[in-house]
Write a structure and sequence with these properties.
The chain has 2 domains: 120 residues, 3-Layer(aba) Sandwich (Rossmann fold); 90 residues, Orthogonal Bundle (Arc Repressor Mutant, subunit A), CATH 1.10.10. 38% of the residues lie in helices and 21% in strands. The protein has a 5-stranded parallel β-sheet, with helices on both faces. A 4-stranded antiparallel β-sheet has the order 6-7-8-9, with helices on one face. The longest helix has 18 residues.
């Protein structure tokens, strides 16, 4: 089950797509006014379907505006069939280009293929709101910007983020991240978290909460 945003100004097409995707057990948000997309919580969606030829804000413009804020697949729905249109749309950051009229079965299959690919690719990535972790590369990003964390700072962030919402003492964090053979002590965790907060604050990210007298938790 995925959360999918569908944007199309034609009510009949919007209803057709919505009903088909609900049949596939997806959670679907259908929007007919493209201007409303700018107010949506785009990070909540696993895939976005955009009609190209819409009044007001067209699909190409909308894709250009939102691509930097979302990393999920964006699929265009359009009656434009010229190769130049296809290349332009993909150049804006879209992942696929589905030409109208289309068979609903084929559309469902294309959506399913993109969602499966996303699942495979995200096995080594942890997404939490505007922050994501490259688990294999041991890197933390805010949108497209890599945060310059030290190895110890990254390990603390990953440990807390993997168990977000849970509170851990300094001692627990230290033993988990550095092991019993660590050369410092748990008070070092306080300094590491201070440095992490300073680095994330440059992106207006407040990810680690202090629970006084107990410890820390990842709150995003």
């Amino acid at each position: 089950m995925a959360k999918i945003l569908v944007v199309d100004d034609e009510p009949a097409i919007l209803s057709l797509i919505r009903n088909a995707l609900i049949t596939d057990q997806h959670l679907v948000t259908a929007i007919s006014d493209s201007a409303q997309v700018r107010r949506a919580d785009l990070g909540a969606y696993d895939l976005i379907l955009l009609d190209v030829m819409m009044p007001g804000v067209d699909g190409f413009t909308l894709c250009r505006e939102i691509r930097g804020a979302v990393d999920c697949p964006i699929l265009f729905l359009t009656a434009k069939t010229l190769e130049s249109d296809l290349m332009y749309g993909l150049g804006l950051g879209a992942d696929d280009y589905i030409v109208k009229p289309f068979g609903i079965g084929a559309l469902r299959a294309r959506i399913g293929a993109h969602l499966r690919r996303e699942t495979r690719e995200r096995r080594n990535v942890l997404y939490l709101e505007n922050v994501h972790f490259n688990l294999s590369g041991k890197e933390l990003f805010v949108q497209e910007d890599k945060v310059p964390l030290t190895k110890s700072e990254y390990e603390i962030c990953e440990f807390l983020a993997r168990s977000r919402g849970q509170v851990f003492s300094k001692e627990h964090i230290y033993e988990t991240v550095f092991g019993l053979d660590g050369v410092s002590d748990s008070s070092a965790i306080t300094e590491h978290i201070k440095n992490i907060r300073a680095k994330l604050s440059k992106y207006s990210i407040d990810a680690i909460e202090t629970i006084w007298g107990i410890g820390y938790k990842w709150k995003l």
